[in-house]
Design a protein that fits this description.
The protein is built from ten helices and 13 strands. By secondary structure, the chain is an alpha/beta fold. The strands form three sheets. The chain has a six-stranded mixed sheet, with helices on both faces. β6, α6 and β7 form a beta-alpha-beta unit. The relative contact order is 0.13. Bound molecules: adenosine-5'-triphosphate. This is Methionine ABC transporter ATP-binding protein. Its main location: membrane.
């Protein structure tokens, strides 16, 4: 497709803000193969991925460690150049138009800050304003909104190094939004946060998406992030898109299981109950797996009838577990992605 004179893809569909067609990234790595000999090997970090994200969508991008998520995000921001395929964000070729694209996107990495460590938040934000040349009025309005909704008022004069992880994360999210980006990439935005901070971040992101229509691509290992924020989820593994659809569908494809953790009053033989199987016994504690789609209430009632129950809790399946089950069932690579 021909690019216009300003580098913007003339034919870009306005509704598809992010477009990937057969995108690949191959790294060449040199490995030691003896005392003097080194061999070259190719790592196909992203292996022919195609998807579209429409303006205003909030999509989860998940997969096990080393699946290719960060490499995809780096290509979407223009930090890395694809080895093959076609990629457009807001009509731009990210690697070619990195500077201009930077004004349209915001990026938050949970594991590291983009803020200035020694500066108070307020000064970091002033630098962001200058970097992106945000008009003063717009900057002030955006800052006020973020400060209000992310509860940053009391933190603005605190140096970043003194902020807690949750405070710093909220500070980072605000910094990524001061220039009104169309797209926000979030890489593990709730990692290491306590329950209250997680809830604050999630509520903010939901409101941001609903009120301003900001398109969000979210990478996370926390299935609750996805459940609470994303209607659509894409699963990547070994550089390939394995699933693209609703989260509920992913549970069905993987036939995922929840775990009921039962603390008995005393050590007992493995619990035998219809609708669940005991997968682990450690002293008076037992773990029972049951289908994620089933209700836990009747199961709990049956166990309480027959066993001396002291306490109970339920563990949701994690993403790795769901993906592992997709593989085990041989449905990976089936018709779901596309
Ligand atoms: N610069 C690089 N040089 C060589 N190999 C790389 C490079 N960057 C990534 N890789 C490899 O590409 C593959 C995908 O890595 P990537 O960081 O994209 O995965 P990820 O899904 O983000 O994982 P995680 O959840 O652990 O962050 C891995 O095998 C990784 O070792």
């Amino acid at each position: 497709m021909a690019d216009g004179p300003d580098g913007v893809d003339a034919g870009a569909r306005e509704d598809a803000l992010i477009e990937l067609d057969g995108v690949e990234k191959v790294f060449e790595v040199r490995r030691r193969a003896g005392v003097l000999r080194r061999t070259r090997e190719e790592v196909r970090a992203v292996d022919g991925i195609s998807f579209r994200v429409a303006r205003g969508e909030m999509v989860g991008y998940i997969g096990p460690n080393g699946a290719g998520k960060s490499t995809t995000i780096k290509m979407l921001t223009g930090i890395l150049t694809p080895s093959g395929g076609r990629l457009r964000v807001a009509g731009f070729d990210p690697a070619r138009d990195r500077t201009r694209l930077a004004r349209r996107i915001g990026v938050v990495f949970g594991q590291r800050t983009t803020l200035w460590w020694d500066l108070p938040l307020r000064d970091s934000y002033r630098l962001v304003r200058r970097m992106y040349r945000v008009p003063r009025e717009r900057f002030e309005a955006n800052l006020e909104r973020c400060v209000d909704l992310l509860d940053l008022g009391a933190l603005l004069d605190v140096p970043v190094r003194q902020l807690s992880l949750g405070q710093r994360m909220r500070g980072d999210i605000a910094a990524a939004l001061l220039h009104d980006p169309d797209v926000l990439y979030l890489d593990e935005p709730t990692i290491g946060l306590d329950v209250i901070s997680k809830a604050k971040v999630r509520t903010f992101l939901r409101d941001l998406n609903a009120e301003l229509g900001t398109t969000v691509l979210l990478t996370t290992h926390d299935l609750t992030d996805i459940e609470q924020l994303c209607r659509r989820v894409m699963v990547i593994d070994h550089g390939r898109l394995m699933y693209d659809g609703a989260l509920a569908g992913l549970h069905e494809v993987g036939e995922s299981e929840r775990t009921l953790v039962v603390d008995l009053e005393r050590e007992s033989p493995p619990i035998e109950v219809a609708g669940a199987r005991t997968v682990r016994v450690e002293g008076p504690r037992q773990w029972l797996a049951f289908p994620a789609a089933a209700s836990a209430a009747p199961l709990v009632a049956r166990i309480a009838e027959g066993y001396p129950v002291a306490d109970l809790s339920i563990r949701e399946p994690d993403i790795e577990d769901v993906i592992a089950r997709m593989y085990a069932m041989g449905s990976a690579g089936g018709g779901a992605a596309g």
